[in-house]
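User: Can you fold this complex?
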Amino acid sequence: MKKAKDRQFSGMNNEELIRCLRQATDEGTSSSALSSLREEIVKQNVGLVKSIAAGFLNSGEPLDDLVQAGYIGLLNAVVNFDLARNTRFSTYASYLIKGEIRHYIRDKHAMVRIPQWVQVTNRKVKEAEEAFFQEQGRPPTIAELAARLDINESQLVELLRGREVMTYVSIDQERRSTDPNPPPLGMEHLSPRDEGGVSSELRMRILIAIEQLAEIQQQVIRGLFYQGKSQAEIGKELGISQRQISRMKEQILQAVKQQLVGPYDESTE
Amino acid sequence: MLDLLNLIGKAIENLQRSIELFKVSERDGGLDQIASVIQQIDCYLERIDEDPLLKIMTIDRAGLGERLLGVKGELASIIESFSPNVL
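Assistant: Here's the predicted assembly.
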């Protein structure tokens, strides 16, 4: 039975296989059939993963480990590839495979503990790069990536160079292998401090702290209004009426509103 | 006693203010804003059981405490990076 299915898929190209996979998923096809499709896609791209992994052998990591990391990129590509875009699957997959291998090497070769803010920022840069590639079918320029991340170009260049010093693999070298005319990452683009005197690192670290607090805030608001106990249950626990609980929630909601939009000013009416 | 949402609202405001102060080279002012957030988090965690907000909702208090301590640790390391030994 499995062999019959394998024969059915053989001869299909990546895009056709992914189209089948999407249809099969939508139709609720059995998980074994979906696995066969995924296996076929992986089988067809083993050579691609191995050849890309071989390009990173100078990192000192064993080929098998690099290939394993590459497979993660391949599977991410299978899940996220958008058939509607005018990009070949192999182009998109290559980008993600390289990204995962670079990420793996960076983690293995980090000589010092990477601060949390750097890890978060690197993840954001990687996600933005991948999303851009998915949409445009090519890697972003420094200006495009900076615009997407809402930071200025010099800050982004600093981040990329920071990422570079944490690994033996030069991202510039890597960029050149895919783009003959990559945007320059020279020292002339580096500005250790912004015009006002606040360093990019400091600003990013504070912004990430703000982001973490905002995440907690959202969780609290969700918990308070959507996932909490019923007002009757809370009232019983606290020994107060449901009406009082309702009033407390209303007051909290008003306070949140005020934090978000500022105090209500009647004179502006 | 600050409730959690008030704590976060004030902390975010202080941190945004600190960025503004650093931008205009008011380093000490910026650091003061960060230090006040650390102090607020400490005060809150000491009296977390009194937070009326947490009494009317379901939330993992231990996890919440860890996340606030994580933010506090990060802010403390920013201040440490400005200590005379580091500069």
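Helices of chain B lie at 4-23, 27-46, 52-55, 61-80. The longest helix of chain B spans residues 4-23.
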